[in-house]
Amino acid sequence: MNEIKPIKRSVELQPLSREHHEGLLYVWKIRQGLKNNTDLEKLRAYTGWYWKNHIRPHFYQEEKVLAARMQDNPLVQRMQKEHDYIRELIIAIDRNLHRHDLGVLADLIEQHIRFEERELFKYLEEHLTADELTAIHAELEKHPVTCGDWLDEFWLKKAAN
Predict the structure, then answer these.
(1) Is 43 helix (H, G, I), strand (E, B) or coil?
(2) Cβ proximity of 102 and 40 under 8 Å
(3) Residue 26 backbone class (left: φ over 0; alpha: ψ -120 to 50; beta: rest)
(4) What is the CA radius of gyration of the chain?
(5) pLDDT for 36-95, tens place per residue?
(6) How far is the C-alpha of 99 from the C-alpha of 93, rounded, in Å?
(7) Mean pLDDT across the chain
(8) Most buried by CB count within 10 Å: which residue of 21, 76, 80, 114?
(9) pTM (2 decimals)?
(10) 24 neighbors 142 (Cβ within 8 angstroms)
């Protein structure tokens, strides 16, 4: 049996990996909310809040700090395309909410995080110099992502029928 081992991330990229962990928690919470038949307006509000307080600043870090060092790299181009698609889907959810779109968003974010952790960050660690990684870390520390807490723990409750 193949055991999935956690990825040992370089210290310089750990801030982004911690944010990815938070992103996977968002995915889990949305899936639990859908499973528990949570009111879709509540899930839309949570998604909007999470976009504003977590995803948007996280994308800023990756696009301005990482992409600046590897502009023409296909992995960075893929990252940017996926960011654009996630943005568009969140805008669509805000304008015209469909239950299906929340599930698609959760799947997309999970796949995107897995890609960045397994491919993009691995590439960065293998191809950037120690000085470049240190500079990335210093820049990330200037713009930390702190999103606070969403108080309604809808993911723990079954909706009343």
Answers:
(1) helix
(2) yes
(3) alpha
(4) 17
(5) 999 999 999 999 999 999 999 999 999 999 888 887 899 999 999 999 999 999 999 999
(6) 9
(7) 91
(8) 76
(9) 0.90
(10) no
